[in-house]
Design a protein that fits this description.
Radius of gyration: 29 Å
Number of domains: 3
Largest sheet: 3 strands, mixed
Strand content: 5-15%
Pfam family, one: Voltage_CLC
Structural class: mainly alpha
Main location: membrane
Oligomer: single chain
CATH superfamily of the largest domain: Clc chloride channel
Keywords: CBS domain, Chloride, Ion transport, Membrane, Repeat, Transmembrane, Transmembrane helix, Transport
Family: Belongs to the chloride channel (TC 2.A.49) family.
Number of strands: 12
Distance between the termini: 28 Å
CATH architecture of the largest domain: Orthogonal Bundle
Helix content: 55-70%
Mean pLDDT: 83
Membrane topology: Multi-pass membrane protein
Length: 764
């Protein structure tokens, strides 16, 4: 609908009094918004539900759609996994063949095969990084922090777009085949989430022509987030072939709001992904299209006794070592990311950084193969048949293989499988590999290219875990180095990412080692405890660096001492239940809030209405000449989800001068029963409401049921940030002057309200 150019009109005095100029001047909408997991309980929605739910056919069709979408998410995510695995290994294969031809042609010279590897790696990584920087910046990294935030209730821009999916899937192939110290498992979680978001909505913002009306019922934050939970689980299953671990990952690391039905659908989605992955990988590799012909990703083929009780103390020590090494890794990467943020502000510099790291990785990888090949007899190798180029014999004698080449020149997944199974690794080879791959993973994490951290952590931990096992063999004859490699892998990944339940199950599923479950669990628990003592997990650190207001599982115990009125924004902009068109239009122009309280004539709180609803009502001209209620709502319910998730902005709405004094009856459209909190309630209760119910706004009322404030996720985040800063300041003062009296934190309502007010426009 097109409108003539609007002639600006002056605000009436009532509207002027509602708008706080200190809050509204130079305000900008935050790039990150909260999701609204709560359904809108409006008369319009309830009447439509009542009409639809009377039809058993509609309910059956809705249920069928739900499971069809879930199946499609699992199947398509797995197909992405098959495609990425096949193309990545194919590129690596031909890259090594080309380097091997150069090696043979120069009769074992250093420079020619090195130049072949160096140039191919730089080209592959350069293309991947360019796609991220100039086409879809949200496609960089693993995507796990962003998906975790989305499932926590935060809408991070661009992370679920179609072009991001393209860049992520193509970029991770180029990055992994380009030899960087990274894996495709983290990006697969992001890919699964993007697949889920796209299929469940039946439309694409990137390609407007893709818009089917089949799944319009799911175009809301609640259902979309539930499907993304299944997509994240399918990503794990499509990468590792671990459906149970994927389901637990979605629960442990991501989703804030969970129920029994969602558990079953998520597990079904992950099982479909795992079955599809195994079937198609079997067909691609052996031409036998059966899921039974594909072994687990990191299956340990050794059948000797796995461990005994005297080994448990060593597992605990390895867990502590993993926690310490993981904490050092996280701290160094945090400092590196802060340094990158200060100096790499131009895209060209970030692209050059990716090229330099690709060059460094290629140089170190090839040089160590040349200087310390670790040559062993091929006849003694027990590597599985699908390890690409395990028998590369560069710089070794006849009938020997280069162990360093087997570890550095293939993909990280193949290196992990080799560490878990090969019996020929020498101690110095494992030590050099663990140290160098640790450092390469450290500098690779955070570059402008799709890259995952899970497999590099497994490789580093597997190397030092196996090394410890080999050192113990002269002392304890029953040491199983394969078990120690697995325990080491669990310790470093647990110490870095702080995953426990899901990682334990993933490792059990991918290695086929249920009997090793106890040492894995013990190691993970110790690694997490030790790591948490020093610093947060790596994904939480990256979330903090991006200043995303993630809410943790549990509230700070100090929240029980603070009241809701101390953190709320008390300059609330409200609307009457029947309001003037001009006033609504002006408020939407002058503010960036996403929710507005509705009050009655006697100023009693009546409900809440969203910004997108108000824009739609103005856009559809739901005007009336008087305040009398309309018998039938003027706007159909389908109009409010028509443009989801991007409703038209207020700038697209123009108002005729003759419409300015007309009214809009908001009562049929507003949420009449939103969650509210009393102004004397504790912040701990506020936190639990946000965390468990998935709220976007929380109106604060007094004993007379009058609106006195508004709390959003950003207010809680700012409160926690202020607390943490004060704790750090007090600790510094104690170190400098131990006798100085500690400073009380709570400075009064005005100070805390100032924090909330200054950021309110960027919060909801």
């Amino acid at each position: 609908m097109d409108f003539p150019t609007h002639t600006s009109a002056k605000l009436d005095e009532t509207t002027k009094n509602l708008l706080n100029p200190d809050l509204l001047t130079n305000s900008e909408a935050s790039a990150m918004e909260s999701l609204d997991y709560d359904y809108i309980d409006s008369p319009l929605v309830l009447s439509e539900k009542k009409r639809l739910f009377q039809s058993s056919t509609y309910l059956m069709l809705l249920n069928v759609k739900l499971w069809v979408v879930t199946f499609l998410i699992g199947f398509i995510t797995a197909m992405f996994g098959v495609f990425i695995d096949f193309v990545t290994n194919t590129i690596i294969k031909y890259k090594i063949i080309l380097a091997d031809m150069a090696y043979i042609h120069t009769q074992g010279a250093y420079w020619f095969p090195y130049i072949v590897l160096l140039s191919s790696n730089i080209i592959l990584v350069g293309i991947s990084s360019a796609l991220v920087l100039w086409f879809a910046p949200a496609g960089g990294g693993s995507g796990i922090p962003e998906v975790k935030c989305y499932l926590n209730g935060i809408k991070v821009p661009e992370i679920l777009r179609l072009r991001t999916l393209f860049v992520k899937s193509v970029g991770v192939i180029l990055t992994v085949s380009g030899g960087l110290a990274c894996g495709n498992e983290g990006p697969m979680i992001h890919i699964g989430s993007m697949v889920a978001a796209g299929i469940s909505q039946g439309k694409s913002s990137t390609v407007p022509l893709v818009n089917t009306p089949v799944f319009t019922e799911f175009r809301n934050d609640h259902d979309k987030r539930d499907f993304v939970s299944g997509g994240a689980a399918a990503g794990i299953a499509g990468a590792f072939g671990a459906p149970i671990g994927g389901t637990l990952f979605s629960l442990e690391e991501g989703s804030s709001f969970w129920n029994q039905a969602l558990t079953w659908r998520t597990f079904f989605c992950a099982v479909v992904a795992g079955f599809t992955l195994n079937t198609f990988l079997s067909g691609v590799r052996t031409h036998n299209w059966s899921p039974d012909d594909t072994s687990p990703s990191f299956q340990i083929t050794d059948t000797s006794p796995t461990y005994s009780i005297p080994h448990v103390p060593f597992f605990i020590l390895i867990g502590a070592l993993g926690g310490i090494l993981g904490s050092i890794f996280n701290q160094l990467n945090k400092l590196l990311m802060q340094f990158r943020k200060r100096i790499n502000r131009m895209k060209i510099f970030r692209w050059l950084e990716a090229l330099i790291i690709a060059g460094i990785t290629a140089t170190i990888s090839f040089s160590v193969c040349y200087l310390a090949p670790g040559c062993v007899s091929i006849g003694n190798s027990t590597s599985t048949d699908d390890i690409t180029f395990r028998d590369v014999g560069w710089y070794c004698g006849p009938g020997e293989k280069n162990q360093m080449a087997a570890l550095f020149l293939g993909s990280g997944e193949l290196s992990v499988k080799s560490l878990f199974n090969d019996n020929t690794f020498m101690s110095h080879t494992l030590l050099i590999y663990a140290v160098l791959y640790y450092l390469l993973s450290l500098i690779t994490l955070g570059i402008a290219a799709p890259s995952g951290l899970l497999v590099p952590c497994l490789a580093v931990g597997g190397a030092y875990g196996r090394l410890i096992g080999q050192w113990l063999q002269p002392i304890m004859s029953d040491v199983n180095v394969h078990t120690f490699a697995l325990v080491g892998a669990a310790s470093f990944l647990g110490g870095t990412a702080r995953m426990t339940i899901s990682l334990c199950v993933i490792l059990i599923e991918t290695t086929g080692s249920v009997q090793r479950g106890l040492p894995i669990m013990v190691t993970l628990m110790v690694a997490k405890w030790v790591g948490d003592y020093f610093i947060h997990g790596i994904y939480d650190i990256h979330i903090e660096l991006k200043k995303i207001p993630l809410l943790e599982w549990d509230p700070d115990h100090e929240m029980s001492d603070v009241r809701a009125e101390e953190i709320m924004a008390d300059h609330v902009i409200w609307l009457y239940d029947v309001e003037k068109v001009l006033k609504i239009h002006t408020i939407l122009q002058k503010t960036t809030h996403n929710g507005y309280p509705i009050i009655s004539k006697d100023e009693v709180f009546q409900g809440l209405i969203l910004r997108s609803q108000l824009v739609t009502l103005l856009y559809k001209r739901a005007f009336q000449n008087s305040k009398a209620p309309e018998e039938i709502p003027l706007v159909d319910l389908s109009e409010f989800s028509k443009y989801y998730p991007r409703s038209p902005g207020i700038e697209s709405v123009q108002i005729y001068r003759e419409d300015e004094d007309k009214f809009i009856d908001l009562r049929p459209y507003m949420n009449r029963t939103p969650y509210v909190i009393h102004n004397n309630a504790t912040v701990e209760r506020v936190f639990r409401l946000f965390r468990t119910m998935g709220l976007r706004h929380l109106p604060v009322i007094n004993e007379k049921a009058r609106i006195v404030g508004m709390i959003t996720r950003r207010d809680l985040y700012n409160f926690q940030a202020k607390r943490n800063k004060n704790k750090l300041d007090r600790a510094r003062k104690r170190r400098k002057s131990p006798n100085i009296e500690d400073v009380q934190y709570i400075e009064g309502q005005h100070s805390l309200n100032g924090i909330s007010e200054s950021t309110k426009l960027l919060s909801d």
